[in-house]
Amino acid sequence: MNRVISIILGCLITGIGTLLLAHAHLVIGGTAGLSLSLSYLMGIPFSPTFFVINIPFYTFAVLRMGWNFTLATFAAVTLLSCITGGLEHWLFNGFAVAPWIGATLGGGLAGLGLAILFENRSSLGGANILALYLEQKYNWNPGYTNCVFDSIVVLSGVYAAGLLRGLYSVLAVIVISSVIGYCKSRSAKRAQILSTATEL
């Protein structure tokens, strides 16, 4: 039950952060960033676009991460799509956000939400799946892995957002990755302390 509550909380926080980024007209990495770019260019809603883009990544998740992780990721993606759709309609309709607020506050919330999902063996698909796989196999920090992939997506999405907002988008990626990396380090230290206490 605690895991379910944590995943819901992670999706809610990530959803608010993503909408702040979207209403600042910024681009982030991963499938969320790709979905935002498509929504800017094609004028289509973010929520269904985000849901559809993630479908191919579930095959990799099943093969490499198992059904438990895949189902949790599918639930998180579905939940985030519903949350962003609902918040967009009820709270963020016509709501404009300054780029620097979107990059810092939106990026910070998105990073925190993703960190909560990672901590509970869930993700939002796409590069998140690969980041967690590389963490399990090679002990790579998922924040750094996400930063590399996110930067590639952001650079490709500068055309959709414009140069200035593209620079703010890079700042958002740095904030997101820094928050994930910080939370991961804190979690690892906490686990080490608990392990040491148990041995004593």
From TrEMBL:
Q: Which cellular components does GO assign to this protein?
A: plasma membrane
**Coiled coil (residue ranges):** none
* Pfam families membership: YitT_membrane
Subcellular localization is given as: Cell membrane
User: What does the record say about its membrane topology?
Assistant: Multi-pass membrane protein
Q: What is its main location?
A: membrane
Q: Which InterPro entries match?
A: UPF0750_membrane, YitT
Bilayer-crossing regions: 7-28, 40-62, 69-91, 97-118, 139-160, 166-183
Q: Enumerate the UniProt keywords alphabetically.
A: Cell membrane, Membrane, Transmembrane, Transmembrane helix
PANTHER family to which the protein is assigned, alphabetical? UPF0750 MEMBRANE PROTEIN YITT, UPF0750 MEMBRANE PROTEIN YITT-RELATED
The protein depicted here goes by the name Uncharacterized 5xTM membrane BCR, YitT family COG1284
Source organism per UniProt:
Propionispora vibrioides
Q: Please spell out the taxonomic lineage of the organism that makes this protein.
A: Bacteria, Bacillati, Bacillota, Negativicutes, Selenomonadales
